[in-house]
From TrEMBL:
BP-aspect Gene Ontology terms: RNA modification
Lineage: Eukaryota, Viridiplantae, Streptophyta, Embryophyta, Tracheophyta
Protein name according to UniProt: Pentatricopeptide repeat-containing protein
PANTHER family, per the entry: PENTATRICOPEPTIDE REPEAT-CONTAINING PROTEIN (PTHR47926), REPEAT-CONTAINING PROTEIN, PUTATIVE-RELATED (PTHR47926:SF454)
UniProt key word ATP-binding: no
Cross-referenced Pfam families: E_motif, PPR, PPR_2
PPR repeats: 203-237, 305-339, 407-441, 507-541
Keywords for this protein: Repeat, Signal
Signal peptide extent: 1-21
UniProt key word Repeat: yes
Gene3D superfamilies attached to this UniProt entry: Tetratricopeptide repeat domain (1.25.40.10)
InterPro entries per the UniProt record, alphabetical: E_motif (IPR046848), PPR_At4g14850-like_plant (IPR046960), PPR_rpt (IPR002885), TPR-like_helical_dom_sf (IPR011990)
Length: 629
């Protein structure tokens, strides 16, 4: 009686590399049986070297032309973190690829976070296989996941959604859950909620997805309401659900709510295998200002991995306890737990908070010595900021120039530092260099550069940046505010006013920028009129609004001393709003003192000056910048 194929599979599973012992038997088996017998070999490949050896054996025996082992090779290489080899196997497969192989290579790209590659492969599959090969429904979750992680590809996700409907797969709960995540990332809560409400069956994953959509889009109370609805419907939450709630409590900073959510986790005995839930609770308590509870959770954790140590170090930083953060890192070293890039980023923040140059240099040496992020991909920007905070701008610039493949974050960091240091011409030239290097600026870099142009009164350069904003379509609220501010500071209040008028639902910052622009350019009456309009509309006002109006009243008093009494009601209202806002700012006292003096009310003016002096405050010296040549 011949050997049984089942027995041979067991033998191969126990002795995965005894290939020669079974070659004669394999050759006597039909091809399909051969493929089945090779599966244990793939499971035994735990290293890249062993998988490469198996790949070589398949090439020698000619079995690589079969879709099954080639597909398994693609998957195995990706699982070992070698997407390049996965792509090579896929691209060199001699025959037409089936839907299953397309699905595996797309999924492999998503595993490896190569989302753009996954989307590009999907488009290729559609053009090469549409109409000839039936597209498997298992491909769509991977493609939708890739689209969710690429903000520039949200439109592709909507196209995929359309195809899902066309193929009649929109009732599939797995695909619907992926669509929920997509619309959540697109900040379309209405779209996500519509999908959720149309689901016939809603499991824990669906509920977790809709809760995350609310939380990720800033509707934290909406996420909590969905959780209450979930529990009332008898659906049990899992660790993923609770992670979303913990994040919501952390962002709200509500201690009582945080305790309540923690109580739910304990009562339901919900744990996460990787400890991520406990780590999130540590961060949550620190954001709620309860470092004692964060410490207690950390020290009660039996297994403290890298993420746990990073959580407590970040928590100490958040509470301003920078030395405790550094001591925790030293304890982490004693425990022989290796730090990652995020840990070292938090440690650099600790050194920066203390202004401890020597400590930060030691961290920098640790990064180089242990080859942690040797190309400064993640730690480049934190190092740039650390050296700048310690007054070592030349070292910041050295790190910047050493970064391989500088991205938008590192460019933004340098531009921001130059702006903070008052080196506005350097900020603008760095922005220009960024454009020459074909790095697409974001709202932050555009707004920062526009602010620098405004402070230097460089109208022409500001207009050129405005043209770039229009060209690339990056006219966010942040950029609109910067444009209004820039044109106002350059003396073109008319252009600033036009931008303000066409702004869609201007925020309090936009209103403040416009009122300030009018006041600074001698249109104080118009500034106060705009404030009145803001008041009549019952729009939210912050402390900046009231300070700007005080300045406008002060300017108006200097020009029209006889009319100042008509607006004293406004000044008193502003004063009431500023009483408990910020008592450490000399500007408020100085402005009020000047206004009372212009009105001849020397008693109140003296009180303001006395209050300023008794608080130990001094008026900052003024400064001006002029452009020569």
């Amino acid at each position: 009686m011949g050997s049984s194929p089942v027995i041979f599979v067991i033998i191969l599973g126990d002795f995965a590399w005894q290939v020669k012992a079974g070659e004669e038997f394999l050759e006597s088996c039909p091809p399909k049986v051969q493929m089945t017998l090779y599966m244990p070999f793939f499971r035994a490949c735990s290293t890249l070297r062993s998988l490469t050896q198996l790949h070589a054996h398949l090439l020698v025996t000619g079995l690589h032309v079969d879709p099954l082992p080639s597909t398994k090779l693609i998957e195995s290489y990706a699982q070992l973190g070698c997407l390049r080899s996965s792509r090579l196997v896929f691209e060199t497969f001699p025959y037409s690829t089936d839907s299953f192989m397309w699905g595996v290579i797309i999924k492999s790209c998503v595993w490896s976070r190569s989302y753009e590659d996954a989307i590009e492969l999907y488009h290729r599959m559609m053009s090469e296989c549409d109409g000839t090969v039936e597209i498997s429904k298992f491909i769509y979750p991977s493609v939708l996941r890739a689209c969710s992680c690429c903000p520039d590809r949200f439109h592709t996700g909507e196209t995929v959604h359309g195809r899902v409907i066309k193929c009649g797969l929109d009732t599939d709960n797995v695909i619907r859950t992926c669509l929920l995540s997509l619309y959540g990332e697109m900040r379309s809560i209405a779209g996500a909620r519509k999908l959720f409400d149309e689901m016939s069956e809603r499991d824990t994953v669906c509920w977790s997805s809709i809760i995350s959509a609310y939380v990720d889009n800033g509707d934290l109370l909406g996420g909590l309401d969905m959780f209450r609805l979930m529990v009332s419907r008898g659906v049990d939450p899992d660790s993923v659900t609770m992670l979303g709630l913990v994040e919501a409590c952390a962002e709200l900073g509500c201690w009582s709510l945080a305790r309540s959510v923690h109580g739910q986790i304990v009562a339901r005995n919900i744990v996460s295998a990787d400890g991520s839930l406990t780590n999130s609770l540590i961060v949550m308590y620190s954001k709620c200002g309860d470092l004692a509870s964060a410490e207690r959770l950390f020290y009660n954790t039996i297994y403290k991995g890298t993420a746990s140590w990073t959580a407590i170090i970040s928590s100490y930083n958040r509470g301003g306890r920078f030395w405790d953060a550094i001591v925790s890192f030293l304890e982490m070293q004693v425990s022989r737990v290796l730090p990652n890039s995020v840990t070292l980023m938090a440690l650099l923040f600790s050194c920066s908070g203390l202004g401890w140059l020597r400590g930060g240099r030691s961290v920098h040496c640790f990064i180089i010595r242990n080859s942690v992020d040797s190309e400064y991909y993640f730690l480049g920007s934190p190092l740039i900021e650390f050296y700048a905070d310690c007054g070592r701008l030349e070292d910041s610039e050295k790190v910047f120039h050493k970064i391989e493949g500088r991205d938008m974050v590192s460019w933004n960091m340098l531009i921001s530092i130059y702006t903070r240091k008052g080196m506005l011409d350097h900020a603008i030239s760095t922005f220009a260099q960024m454009l020459r290097n074909q790095i697409m600026p974001d709202s932050f870099s555009l707004a920062t550069s526009l602010s620098a142009c405004g402070n230097l009164s460089l109208l022409q350069i500001g207009r050129e940046i405005h043209g770039h904003v229009v060209k690339v379509g990056l006219s966010s609220e942040f950029v609109q505010n910067a444009l209004v501010d820039m044109y106002s500071k350059c003396g073109r209040v008319d252009w600033a006013r036009n931008l303000f008028i066409i702004a869609h639902q201007p925020s309090v910052v936009t209103w403040n920028s416009m009122i300030c622009g009018l006041s600074q350019n001698g249109y104080s009456a118009e500034a106060i009129k705009l404030f009145d309009e803001m008041y009549l509309r019952r729009l939210h006002m912050d402390k900046v609004t009231f300070v700007i109006v005080l300045q406008a009243c002060s300017n108006l008093a200097c020009m029209e001393k006889g009319r100042i009494h008509r607006r004293l009601d406004l000044i008193l209202a502003v004063k009431r709003n500023l009483v408990n806002v910020e008592k450490r700012d000399a500007g408020y006292f100085s402005l009020l003192s000047n206004i009372y003096a212009e009105d001849g009310n020397w008693g109140e003016s003296g009180k303001m000056r006395l209050a300023m002096e008794s608080s130990g405050l001094k008026k900052a010296c003024g400064h001006s910048i002029i452009e020569l040549g």
